[in-house]
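Tokenise the fold.
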Amino acid sequence: MDDKVFWLIACVAAYWLCCVVLAFRGALSARSATDYLIAGRSVPFWIFVVAATATSFSGATFLGHPGLIYADGFQYAYTSFYAIVIPLTGVLFLKRQWMIGKRFGFVTPGEMFASYFRGDAVRLLVVLVAIMFSVPLIALQFQVSGQLVQYVSAGEIPADFAILALAAGVLVYVAIGGLRAVAAVATLQGLLLVAGMITLGYMTLEAIGGFDALKRGIALIGELDPVRTPDGHSHYLAVPGVIQLVTSGPAAEGGPWTAMMIFSYMIAMLGIQATPIFTMWAFASRDPAPFASQQVWASAFVIGIVLFVAAAIQGIGGHLLGADAIMNAAPEADGLVSNRLDPIAPGEQGLLVPSLITAFSVGMPWLAGLLALAAIAAMQSTGAVYLSTLSGLLTRDLVKHFVVPSASHGLQRGIARLMVLIVLVVATAAALLTSDALVLLGGIAIALGVQMWPALIAVCYVPWLTRTGITMGLIAGIVAVVLTEKLGGQIAAALGYALPWGRWPFTIHSALWGLAANLLVAVVFSALTQSREATEHRMRFHGFLRAHANLPTERRALIPAGWVLTVLWMFFAIGPGLVTGNAILGDPNDASTWVLGLPSIWAWQIIFWGGGVIVLWFLAYQLEMSTPPRRRVEALIDDIGDVSDTGEALRS
């Protein structure tokens, strides 16, 4: 057995042992259904901060992000702003959802929406969105984990065996311990994610020869790049315009990441903390105290450093370590490019991080085990939480609500464990048997989360939106997402039709197409279906929120400043104004003009990352959108976890 394989197995075994111990500790505390499904509404401060951060960013950040920076350069690196954008949704909605869940005893978002809108159609759509969002992403996590293990072990551990072994480990701690155990394990996973990415970034910089060598290398990458934007800049160092009116986003000249593509992809990222999964995270927290710390400091600040610095160095550094055949062959690169990595073929950028792990572990086999474990833990941090929360949704919103309304605490825990097994079997089978289909479904999953925004806006802010409007809007959003992804074209072709567009027409991500259709339909149908009785019912929720969540008089003058800061930041950081960053701090084609030796696009991103942290801090703390409410929230009904119909309890 190779030393790397030994250390990989040893590290994973030690990690699994920790998971099992935490699982049994969680099981001993899970006396009621609420204990098992949402940790008894008692997830502590620091566990929430680290675990929710790990859930938000996961393995796609660890393995995928540096590889895509390698492939598309700093135009793709604008997507690192999801360190700001993902928690922005939490700032807007998590505190208010926690208050509603605490007040009315909701365990799942399906219960919350069904009670608020007085109907099961939205409940079922929420479950559908959760399934379509969670299952493909769980399967992708397993598949990529298996491929990573096979690569790092040089084929000694087959990918299929690794998938089965890793899935079995997840099954044990999720099924036994419930969300309490998952949260505790996710804390460990979050720490491994950050430590692993910073370590790889540091080692990449050292292998390149330091920051001066990196700056010279970036300049040479720009000179040798054969792909040019419409303005004649290297596609690694500039965004190819505000928008391109092409039928398919990937066909854009100079790279697909126009300002409009970046903005619409960030809209998709707004959906991560809008999913039903994060609503249950909100319900599980002891109080809203950790929300601001998680959003501003753990996500925006710490993960921002990881993405804008460590991941960028890994991605660009790959060109200087032998992965880029063009750089390898250039006489100008002699003495600047090493051969630490094997060349990576176009489209195979996902191999960059595994290649770095393998290269840096030469002579240090223990390092391969630790870095591979960090990547696996990062991927499981998302998969395990999705698995746990989806099983809770299926248990409460399908089985308990429709089949066994009087299910006891013990029966609910048993059903939830069965649901964990069923979802895991389906996801594992998908990981083993499919590949292209998973990629298609994974793309759709990312775009579906933000389709929950109109429903959350309704519950948290706008009582005017009606049940029919939200239901029809959600359906329209799902359809629009599918039609602007590859799957929509394949479905149309199977039916004998040819869509006049491809994936992401006009370089606009499917998430924005879906959200636009969703909001339009929701507004139109809400206007047509207003009811005084229904509005009065919804106002019970909004009256409670206004009494507990509204700003005190002395702080309301800050609200316009919050709007101005947020809109300006979005315009210049992730909107049309970001094209200013192409050249304002130096000509992309002339490294001698770069401020501090950084290309203008990278310096612009770092500046607005700092600005984004300030914006989130202002919203979360100064406007009190993520701080504990000033008035104590009293539960309207006993939070015993087995209320069969909270809506009926409220009406009575």
Notes: The first helix runs from residue 3 to 29. The radius of gyration is 24 Å. Confidence is low (pLDDT under 50) at residues 639-649.
